[in-house]
Amino acid sequence: MPDSPYDLIVIGAGPVGENVADRAVQGGLTVAIVESELVGGECSYWACMPSKTLLRSGNALRAAQRVPGAREAITGTLDVQAVLNRRNEVVADWNDAGQASWLDSAGITLVRGHGRLDGERRVVVTAEDGTTTTLTATHAVALSTGTAALLPDIPGLADAKPWTSREATSAQSVPKRLAILGGGVVGSEMATAYASFGTAVTVIARGGLLGGNEPFAGELVADALRELGADLRLGRSPERIERDGDTVTITLDDGETIEADEILVATGRVPRTMELGLETVGLPAGDWLGVDDTLRVHGADGEPIDWLYAVGDINHRALLTHQGKYQARAAGDVIAARALRKPVHDEPWGAHVATADHEAVPQVTFTDPEVASVGLTAAAAEKAGYRTRVVDYEIGNVSGAYLTAEGYTGTARMVVDEDRKAVIGVTFVGQDVADLLHSATIAVVGQVPIDRLWHAVPSYPAISEVWLRLLEGYGRPE
Ligand SMILES: Cc1cc2nc3c(=O)[nH]c(=O)nc-3n(C[C@H](O)[C@H](O)[C@H](O)COP(=O)(O)OP(=O)(O)OC[C@H]3O[C@@H](n4cnc5c(N)ncnc54)[C@H](O)[C@@H]3O)c2cc1C
Ligand SMILES: NC(=O)c1ccc[n+]([C@@H]2O[C@H](COP(=O)([O-])OP(=O)(O)OC[C@H]3O[C@@H](n4cnc5c(N)ncnc54)[C@H](O)[C@@H]3O)[C@@H](O)[C@H]2O)c1
């Protein structure tokens, strides 16, 4: 390990920290990155990658079952062990040697251990054997320590040995009965995966599914989950949870009880800022870290701290890998620019800001149907004060969807800002819409005028023809 000081110290080598470090090195800085668990972070080992692997096989099987000819060729059921084996391979058996060697090839120094701030531009790293190393940064420290699962304060829950997303994505066998608390993204995706495995899934959600999306998204996913055999208790909350040996009993607010072998808690995330030494720089421990658009942390006085950055989940802007990596590119580049006294482009949509965080965040939920959205929902746009027009279309009516699956079910919505005549939000719900989303992201970020979109011709017969139907629904400006 080269001697400290480094130009930049990054704490947390998840997807976001790795990218901050890489951009800063490419910008000409020396960088050390501190990691207490696995290089690659939550996304690689307990979140995006294993969860999508667990979902893919069931989604592929159902896709084939929806096509005559292919359907008849299916002679068996999902091979759950093969799915789990593939998941093990995708996460490299929870071994980060590959990612650690990438850091090395990128010229980033890895320091293994738990990092915490120790005053301005100083980081103390405690290794597994208890030894400590003090690192100093000439220019900046970037915090990218991500999140952990939130455990709500429900009587008995903590003693019931609940699963979090970590256990759900790393299980080596599947339970016969799984209760899932929370109807957000993790709850809906894991309900889909485990129901595909033949597990008896019960989802307990205090609202509907996938709140924050267009309402039809949660409704279509709920219908599909019921069809898969899941039991949905929507608008319900647990009052008490007890484990007796192998059985967990959940008592709901109306007195009904549900029994399961495992209970998965999927009720959101908390920032990993508790043991980060934030109090040594005048910030409270345990909170999300507010940032400006160049990702500098807001100090106690509300002004940005010039040497401290918070990037990715930890700043609570958008808890998504791709959006965190987008922030990381801006942060790594601006840290290098500031260190080397080069021009800083911090105007909206400039090279050194994460402007898209505000109203242009794309997300795909890999349920079946998939939910792909970018920008504002109709409700969010109205709340933000936009004068909008909303166009809906049943995706199953386009030829591409009809060919993709018999009885294709799905809905698209386009939200148009009537003052700018530009698209500010799009949602697609349906099979195979994930990769369609980027067209919508480009339209939203590019603020492409509706009349120009008429010249973006979707290929026939592809599902993307839904764009033409949405435009026709809106009407061509004269
Ligand atoms: C089940 C699940 C599925 C998901 N699926 C998707 C998906 O499909 N697509 C998507 O875009 N997003 C998905 N997400 C969200 C995604 O995982 C996060 O947005 C992403 O991991 C955030 O990256 P990060 O680098 O900010 O944090 P993390 O990935 O959490 O990485 C933080 C790293 O910091 C380390 N660390 C923490 N504290 C310290 C410390 N004090 N010292 C040293 N190291 C420390 C941790 O060990 C970890 O390696 C999913 C989340 C979950 C829970
Ligand atoms: N495909 C993807 O992009 C993907 C997949 C998984 C997770 N993620 C990200 O990870 C983050 C975490 O996902 P998540 O599903 O844990 O959070 P979430 O915020 O999506 O959903 C949490 C759900 O739990 C409910 N809830 C919260 N407290 C509760 C309580 N005390 N009792 C009952 N219900 C309660 C909420 O109402 C909500 O429906 C999300 O922000 C998401 O963006 C993304």
From TrEMBL:
Signal peptide start and end residues: none
GO biological process: 2-oxoglutarate metabolic process
Molecular functions (GO terms): dihydrolipoyl dehydrogenase (NADH) activity; flavin adenine dinucleotide binding
Keyword field contains Methyltransferase: no
Binding residues annotated for NAD(+), in chain numbering: G182, G183, G184, V185, V186, G187, S188, E189, G268
Cofactor requirement: FAD
Annotated TM spans: none
Disulfide linkage: C43-C48
Domain FAD/NAD(P)-binding residue range list: 6-322
Keywords: FAD, Flavoprotein, NAD, Nucleotide-binding
Binding, FAD: K52, G115, D313
Family annotation (Pfam families): Pyr_redox_2, Pyr_redox_dim
InterPro entries: Class-I_Pyr_Nuc-Dis_Oxidored, FAD/NAD-bd_sf, FAD/NAD-binding_dom, FAD/NAD-linked_Rdtase_dimer_sf, Pyr_nuc-diS_OxRdtase, Pyr_nucl-diS_OxRdtase_dimer
Family: Belongs to the class-I pyridine nucleotide-disulfide oxidoreductase family.
PANTHER family: DIHYDROLIPOYL DEHYDROGENASE, MITOCHONDRIAL (PTHR22912:SF151), DISULFIDE OXIDOREDUCTASE (PTHR22912)
UniProt name for this protein: Dihydrolipoamide dehydrogenase
